[in-house]
UniProtKB/TrEMBL annotation:
This is Transcription factor bHLH. Residues 6-103 form a coiled coil. The lineage of its organism: Eukaryota, Viridiplantae, Streptophyta, Embryophyta, Tracheophyta. The gene is bHLH. Keywords: Coiled coil. It comes from Cichorium intybus (Chicory). InterPro entries: At4g38062-like (IPR040262). It comes from the Eukaryota.
Length: 163
């Protein structure tokens, strides 16, 4: 949008400059005509007055074109400054995005490391738990075996006493 406005302003300046050159050419032609008329002393005072009036009108028009050119140049300068500020803001946002991305990558890496540590701890706890479960089963079996042996021994004593 800013570039389009700059292009449009540049086109207007070029048009104004072309008109300016055309008027300068016309002024030169008129000057030559006036000089020629004065040298020949053939022109009447009304023609000189008319040429003078045209010169004033063309001078006024030239002045208006110069004013318009100055205004357009000021607009272009202002728009260039705006564009520069927008570019600076855009670059700041890009830098901020780069910083945030680096921070996110570091956090992500930290989280992944922490997850890995927790997984390792969990695996260790699971292995320890399974080992304790096997020991408990082994002790249960030993206890059942011991109870069976005592029960059998107790039955033998009772039978022996009864007999």
């Amino acid at each position: 949008n800013v570039l389009f406005s700059l292009d449009e302003a540049n086109e207007k300046i070029q048009e104004v400059e072309q008109k300016n050159r055309d008027f300068m050419d016309k002024i030169e032609v008129l000057k030559e005509g006036i000089v020629s008329v004065s040298q020949k002393k053939c022109a009447s005072e009304s023609k000189v007055a008319k040429a003078s009036k045209q010169m004033r009108e063309k001078g006024d028009m030239f002045e208006k074109l110069e004013d318009e050119k100055v205004k357009l140049e000021e607009q272009i300068k202002w728009k260039n400054e705006q564009f520069k500020h927008l570019e600076e803001a855009h670059e700041k946002l890009r830098d901020n995005l780069r910083v945030k991305k680096k921070e996110w990558d570091m956090e992500k890496s930290s989280f992944l490391d922490e997850i890995s540590i927790l997984e390792t701890k969990l695996d260790s706890q699971i292995t320890l738990s399974e080992d304790l479960q096997r020991r408990l089963e082994s002790w249960k079996q030993a206890l059942v075996h011991e109870q069976n042996q005592r029960s059998l021994g107790f039955k033998k004593i009772v039978i022996h006493l009864l007999l």
